[in-house]
Design brief:
With 185 residues, this protein is α/β, with parallel strands linked by helices. It has eight helices and seven strands.
Length: 185
């Protein structure tokens, strides 16, 4: 503010808002054509993954974990929910979390029945140690954890979102959802 330098603040809560933010940065920096090409390439990569997955229920239930103490996750109103869906999974957190800051109790995680837990190496190591999860959480019981090659690729909406979708989709193709997670009509 003191230097009167232009300031651009971005907040992307959906995949579309991520594309819009990239275009806005392009416009602000005089690189709009490059930003448009980048977002078009991102959209193409993500659409290819989504089309390759098709709709093949049952979908693996995916729980994104950022931390264990408290257990911090992401709900259905996030770009990560979209990423999980595009990758061929279903967010285990189907309704917004009632507790502040998208936190869960260990018991709520058991009730969510995730087939896969996504997180960083440290969070995954901690998840394996939560009492009751080794028998009560399918993902922990079966050792079904996904750690992206770059741990920040899923937590920062930006140009690497296609990489996140591709990596998660490849992992989810190896998962067979637990029979108890499949709802019958």
């Amino acid at each position: 503010e003191k230097t009167k330098a232009p300031l651009l603040i971005l907040s992307a809560n959906t995949v579309q808002e991520t594309y819009d933010s990239i275009r806005l940065v392009g416009k602000a920096t005089g690189t709009e054509p490059t930003a448009n090409l980048l977002t078009a390439a991102m959209q193409t990569r993500i659409q290819k993954v989504a089309q390759a997955n098709g709709v093949k229920p049952p979908l693996p239930r995916v729980l994104m974990l950022y931390g264990i103490n408290p257990i911090y996750t992401t709900g259905p109103d996030s770009y990560l929910n979209e990423i999980i869906t595009m990758a061929g999974g279903k967010n285990a957190v189907e309704k917004p979390v009632d507790q502040p800051g998208d936190t869960l109790t260990p018991e709520q995680v058991i009730m969510l029945r995730p087939d896969v837990i996504v997180g960083g190496k440290e969070v995954i190591a901690q998840a394996k140690q939560v009492p009751g999860w080794s028998t009560g959480v399918v993902a922990v019981k079966k050792g079904q954890f996904f750690v992206p090659k770059s741990e920040t690729v899923l937590v920062r909406p930006g140009p690497r979102l296609p990489q996140a979708v591709e990596e998660l989709a490849a992992y989810l193709r190896t998962i067979t959802p637990e029979a108890s997670n499949v709802k019958t009509p």
